Automatic annotation (TrEMBL):
SMART domains, per the entry: TPR (SM00028)
PANTHER family: HTH-TYPE TRANSCRIPTIONAL REGULATOR RV0890C-RELATED, REGULATOR-RELATED
This protein's name: Tetratricopeptide repeat-containing protein
Stored Gene3D superfamilies: P-loop containing nucleotide triphosphate hydrolases, Tetratricopeptide repeat domain
Classification via Pfam families: TPR_12 (PF13424)
Domain of life according to the entry: Bacteria
InterPro entries: P-loop_NTPase, TPR-like_helical_dom_sf, TPR_rpt
Organism the protein comes from: Micromonospora carbonacea
SUPFAM superfamilies: P-loop containing nucleoside triphosphate hydrolases (SSF52540), TPR-like (SSF48452)
Length: 651
């Protein structure tokens, strides 16, 4: 705003944002700080755009302005156009600051713009008022306060000592208020009124969403509810319905495709959806996180949910939530089919056809969508399970497999797979339970929970047998073989892998044969038998070469396996070629974890060549990735770095 004023000319600043975000306070403070720059004074009008009354007639504001500027009441015209003409004549040479608070529309404001090039206008509105752009206006979007500033505001109200004594709860309280100044001020008022009330106690009271709005109110009413109601009531009927429905979304943010599904846009409905989204953005009831991606402010979402409960029957609200959950499943299944088309899946019958689920051009786009929507997919699974939609909850867990395969987020994987097991049991589907137990066993093994891993793995074998699935039994037994390898039982693991491979060869799935050759070959290399491993790895490479369009991920894993075997045989050139190719192709596939594993191989090869500096560089690169992924592999790589003279502290 200062820089806008410095540019000269007829400056117009429009402060837009949701009710309670501090637009009026900012405008008044800035006006007060700059009052000496306007020698002819300031004009102020509350335009009552969202006060609950009718917006102020521009003629009423003009009459007040003209009188303040010294025009005799009997000289003020009755006709609005004549009032505007007189106002512009009177202000033509004046150095004025005009503050127009709570504007409803660009038309309402335009009548009140002075003609002077040495005047400045500050407008506040919950709408973006883009209609003022041709008049030279610049829009300033105000969002909630960042966490640090929100805590500072609390401290100014209740005293910094009280905040410093409970800095953790103070941050939580600021988060529960969503950084919205009006909510923070109300919370601070409660704390000031009750000096013995701890912040921790208040956080506990506000943690319940159902009680939060009631607590964040004053003795003479609820300002947050009232502000929301004014913005909400100004919406068109269709936009108000959409807003109520979006408030039921299980996650924190969502894409325009989800909006289309909720709105039931149908084919060719993109323009209608864009118009509705535009109306909600214009009313500052929706935040634009990025292109075609939005969120509802936490406090306003609670208000909207209250209104939804008042206007929408329970059955209708449940239907909207079910639509959202099934939207995420439909979109994730499309991504799953692009990334891992070879997987065995259970069918699912959707309640009704859905609008909006995206199509994916390639694996990269599908994986990017799964990663972006990870939080929503996980929350959708929790909500589905909580509502008793157990089959849907299992499907939402199952469909995240491509992301878990490529990205390796074990903390998320444990939660996803555990929910999948519980959902399958509640659903009563033995095969679904077996499949998720197999996954959970592997996840537990990767984080070092070996007892749980063996328990889940053996249970998976039993459930697959109960379901009569021979391939599933072999899959689960291979998982147990991998567990033996992870826990240092190499001979037992090798024997188990050999039995599994024999069983695989009796089944029609050639891809599974390739996986077993790869697993056994990598184990043999690790136990000092690279010459025995090489034929198995070569066979795996031939199998996956024919499946490169279907399963490129394991084709690249074979390259890493071959690199390790060649390294064990002393063929450093062949090892480096395979490892470097694995790094490049895993990067193309977006699998940071497996790329880092191949980079570790390059480090080991460099160390064997005697190039410790190159080895340290590779180990540091891999350690950075494993650290970011919270991978259990990090300590091993730090040890290698230390052995190469790098020092773990340098990472």
């Amino acid at each position: 705003m200062d820089s806008l004023l410095a540019e000269g000319g007829n400056s117009i600043a429009v402060l837009c944002g949701p009710g309670g975000v501090g637009k009026s306070a900012l405008a008044r403070q800035w006006a007060h700080g700059n009052r000496n720059r306007f020698v002819d004074g300031q004009l102020y009008a509350d335009l009552r755009g969202f006060s609950g009354d009718r917006p102020l007639d521009p003629g009423v504001a003009l009459g007040a302005f003209l009188r303040a500027l010294g025009v005799a009441p009997d000289r003020i015209p009755v006709d609005l156009a004549e009032q505007v003409a007189l106002y512009r004549s009177v202000t033509a040479d004046r150095s004025l600051l005009v503050l127009l608070d709570d504007a409803f529309s660009a038309g309402q404001v335009r009548h009140l713009l002075p003609a002077s090039t040495s005047a400045a206008v500050v407008v506040t509105s919950r709408r973006r008022l883009t209609g003022l752009l041709p008049d030279g206006a610049r829009l300033f979007d105000l969002g909630p306060l960042p966490a640090e500033q929100a805590v500072e505001l609390l401290g100014r109200a209740v005293g910094p000592e009280r905040i410093l004594g409970e800095s953790g709860p103070a941050g939580e309280l600021a988060g529960l208020c969503g950084g919205l100044p009006i909510a923070l001020v109300v919370a601070a008022g409660l704390l000031a009124f009750r000096p013995k009330l701890t912040l921790r106690k208040m956080v506990a009271e506000l943690a319940d969403e159902a009680q939060r709005l009631a607590r964040l109110s004053t003795v003479d009413g609820s300002p947050i509810r009232a502000m929301f109601q004014c913005s909400y009531q100004a919406l068109t009927p269709e936009a108000s319905v959409l807003y109520r429905r979006l408030a039921l979304h299980p996650g924190t943010e969502f894409g325009v495709d989800l909006v289309a599904a909720v709105a039931g846009a149908g084919p060719g409905g993109a323009a209608r959806v864009a118009a509705l989204v535009g109306e909600l953005l214009d009313a500052s009831l929706l935040d634009e996180v990025s292109e075609d991606r939005f969120r509802l402010h936490d406090i306003l979402r609670l208000c909207a949910r209250e209104v939804a409960e008042q206007h929408e029957p329970e059955a209708d609200r449940q239907a909207v939530v079910r639509t959202m959950l099934e939207f995420y499943l439909a979109a994730a299944r499309r991504a799953d089919l692009v990334v891992t088309p070879y997987r065995r899946r259970l069918p699912y019958t959707f309640l009704r056809p859905l609008d909006g689920p995206p199509e994916f051009a390639d694996r990269a786009a599908a994986l990017a969508w799964l990663d972006r929507e990870r939080g929503n997919l996980m929350e959708a699974g929790r909500v589905a399970f909580g509502l008793g939609h157990h089959e849907l909850a299992w499907q939402l867990s199952d469909v995240m497999w491509p992301l878990l395969l490529y990205v390796k987020s074990y903390r998320d994987r444990l939660e996803i797979d555990d929910l999948g097991v519980r959902a399958a049991r509640a659903w009563g589907n033995v095969w679904a339970e077996a499949d998720m137990l197999k996954r959970l066993a592997r996840a537990c093994s990767r984080v070092g929970a070996y007892d749980e891993a063996e328990q889940h793995g053996r249970a998976a074998v039993g459930r697959y047998r109960q379901a009569g699935d021979a391939q599933g039994v072999v899959d689960a037994e291979e998982g147990l073989a991998t567990l033996y390898a992870d826990t240092g039982q190499e001979e037992q693991a090798a024997e188990a892998y050999a039995r599994v491979l024999a069983g695989r060869r009796a089944l029609p799935d050639v891809r599974s044969v390739g996986l077993s050759c790869l697993n056994l070959g990598m184990l043999l290399t690790r136990t000092g038998r690279p010459a025995d491993a090489l034929p198995l790895l070569t066979e795996a490479g031939e199998i996956f070469a024919g499946l490169s369009d279907v399963d490129p991920y394991n084709a690249v894993r074979v390259l890493s396996g071959l690199a390790d075997a060649h390294l064990g045989l002393g063929d450093l050139a062949a090892a480096e070629r395979c490892a470097a190719e694995a790094v490049r192709r895993m990067a193309d596939l977006g699998s940071d974890n497996e790329r880092a594993e191949a980079v570790v191989l390059l480090g080991r090869i460099a160390r064997r060549r005697g190039d410790d500096e190159a080895a340290r560089q590779h180990y540091r690169e891999a350690a950075d990735v494993f650290d970011r992924l919270a991978s259990p592999r990090l300590p091993d790589v730090l040890r290698l770095l230390d052995e190469a003279g790098g020092g773990a502290g340098e990472v």
